[in-house]
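Example record used in the benchmark description.
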Amino acid sequence: MSKFLLMPSEKLFENTEVAFALKTDSELERAHFLFKMIASEPLVKIGTAATKLALNMNLPVEGLIRSTVFDHFCGGVNEEDCLPVVDKLYEKGVHAVLDYSVEGKETQEQFNSTLAKVNELTAFADEKDAMPFSVFKPTGLGRFKIWEKKSAGETLTESEQAEWDAIVARYESACEKAQAHDVALLIDGEESWMQDAADELVTDMMRKHNKDKALIFNTLQCYRWDRLDYLKEQHLEARAKGFKLGYKIVRGAYMEKENERADENGYPTPICKDKAHTDQTFNDTLRYILENLEDISVFIGSHNEESCYLAMELMEELGIAKNDPRVWFGQLFGMSDHISYNLAEAGYNVAKYIPFGPVKDVMPYLIRRAEENTSVAGQTSRELSLLKNEKKRRKL
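Model output (structure tokens):
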């Protein structure tokens, strides 16, 4: 265990007054209700199935969704809708990453529309100090099947090659826009069997656009046991060729799907054998980056308190200023406020990922959030415990 966890600073994340300062009493009650629901796996399964059915049948449930789970985990239906949220967060020293969380699109028109939205958000971020990043998912700019075939080294048909060329052009457009506006661009990670092609493309973008500093960021999903070795290989190339690396590090979001596919197809799972090894990989990756901060910038995407404490300890040991622009902490909107707001209060760079989009289009994201919270042992119970503590504090 890190010695930092034994120091008085370990109480930092217990301060619920700071954590929930932006929540009204009614919003606190809603959060408590939602996390109680999410704590029950049967309720989550029933609720997500019923929600999918109701939306597919065009039943009038969007208002109910909007006033409960959507407003808790999302900033709004469009970027203007998000602005009051962004401004409120910034008053507490917490920055915003507006994430256009529309998933599952398949047509070239939809991909072009998503690119236009990403570029619009990059320009939008340039105008607001509260928004230092823009973001997108690889499958937001191209079909999963193309990514998968490219990652597997399969020969693309003529029409598929045209699709791949369009994906590359969209990446170029997004990265050029980021450079023009000097707004860092976070590119999310996805399933391992499409990720190799995405990694290669992002590295190519880093070679072109990260000459002086990390502007383009890839994502390392540290529940994969090979990611630290991959990072070290990338570091060697970056030093040899004279460009900077940027990485968002997370534990990961597709574990069950990864294990099931590996089992079905008879190959070793890319996922660490247990949570302890995942935690170790994440922390080792974090340490490696902070020890090589001259070459690698980091966005620490973590809801894990011990990893955040470790990052704080390492920064202190290595003489890295709390507000060093190469180190950011990030959590999802609606979750782990006790980490985000207390870190910001202590002077660290913190950003909240704020999903937004039409209610129906954002539902796949919200359903995944609910399912992930249910499957992560301790996460939901910790949220509930802190919410209860704040309710008690306010009554007193």
